[in-house]
Amino acid sequence: MSGKTTGDHGNQVGTALVIGSVNWFKYASPQAFYPLAGAMIPWFAWAAAACGIAGLYTGFFVAPTDHQQGESYRIIFIHVAAAWMSMFIYLVMAFWAGVGLVFNTRLSHMMATALAPTGALFTFIALWTGSLWGKPTWGTWWVWDARLTSELILLFLYFGFMALQAAIDEPRRADRAGAVLALVGVVNIPIIYFSVKWWNTLHQGASVSLTSAPTMAATMFSGMLLMALAAWMYSIAAALHRMRSIILERERGTDWVAQQARENRL
Amino acid sequence: MNWASWSDFFAMGGYAVYVWGSYGATIGLIIVETFLLRSRRRAALEQLGRSAMRGRA
Fold first, then answer.
1. pLDDT tens-digit map of A106-165
2. Rounded CA gap, A120 and A76, in Å?
3. What's the pLDDT tens digit per position in A210-236?
4. What is the pTM for the complete model shown?
5. For burial by CB atoms within 10 Å, which of A114, A122, B12, B27 has the most?
């Protein structure tokens, strides 16, 4: 491996990435990241609560009844936010896994590990709410079409990532094995996203895209965006919180953890 | 306003099972994850406390 290490307790990256006079690798050390994450968690948690309440209010009391689907369409406010989040978290997880493989930074791998359960949660929610929406609109809980099947594969990728890491005792090897799996699985994300275009699916096409105006009422759209924002904020808070626990678990033997534990500052 | 009364709201136009099944499961799972996050942190801190005790003895 290139890059000299400064021992187990310090930053593992010898070469510093300096952009705009800020050494960005400073925060790549668990010791520096731990308090930073701790300070950020309440902000993201409160933002998640605020966006969630605003989104639920908009979704149930402002957005009108759909003229085709009646009230059943209100599942959209959870379903779309969860489905977007399930794919996005995977991309972020694979990104950090890739960074971890290239730069050999422990913190990047921990970030990937911290994201996986929350990603799996949103994938499950997307599938669950989709099923409950499918029954009244399509007349079936489940169908093996491309969109649904590829989303189910996403759930298995998250589970596979977590199971693989849990099965390997040595953290460094667990990190690497998980990272390779995460990167290989990335190919599934464009398949999920474009499945409604590439194949003739029962699942409807995108109601929202970057290139055209949304095909729904403005209040429905804003409710959906607020819920998506809430999902983002929640995911960041949850991942940072899990990250801090992972740091404590893995850095147990280091001087800084021992010292801060004695001083009750963790 | 979409709803004439609270019972109208809870009925969700006849789709109560599907709508509340979605929202209920989501909120429930988020509560479960929050609980798991807290207990993992508590376990990590307790483990540290135990090893600190051993170090002092």
1. 999 999 999 999 999 999 999 999 999 999 999 999 999 999 999 999 999 999 999 999
2. 19
3. 666 677 888 999 999 999 999 999 999
4. 0.89
5. A122
- Give chain A's radius of gyration (CA, Å): 21
Q: CB distance from B20 to chain A under 8 Å?
A: no
The DSSP string of A131-158 is HHHHHHHHS-S----HHHHHHHHHHHHH
Q: Do B12 and A262 touch (CB under 8 A)?
A: no
The residue of chain B with its CA nearest to that of A114 is B37
Q: Where do the structural domains in chain A lie, given as residue ranges?
A: 44-251
B27 touching A (Cβ < 8 Å): no
> What ipTM, to 2 d.p.?
0.92
pLDDT per residue over B2-43, tens digit each? Answer: 899 999 999 999 999 999 999 999 999 999 999 999 999 999
| φ, ψ for residue A40, nearest 5 deg | -85, -30
At A183, list the tokens.
């990167």
A139 burial level (CB within 10 Å; 0-12, 13-18, 19+): exposed
CB of A101 closer than 8 Å to CB of A174: no
* Cβ–Cβ under 8 Å, residues A118 and B32: no
* Cα–Cα nearest to A124, from B30, B15, B31, B39: B30
Counting one residue from chain A and one from chain B, the pairs whose CB atoms sit within 8 A come to 94
- Of the candidates B21, B3, B45, which has an alpha carbon nearest to the alpha carbon of residue A129? B21
- CA angle A57–B38–A250, rounded 5-degree value: 130
pLDDT at A9: 41
Which residues pair with residue A66 across a beta bridge? A70
Which H or E run includes A244?
helix A218-250
Contact criterion met (CB below 8 Å) for A49 and A237 = no
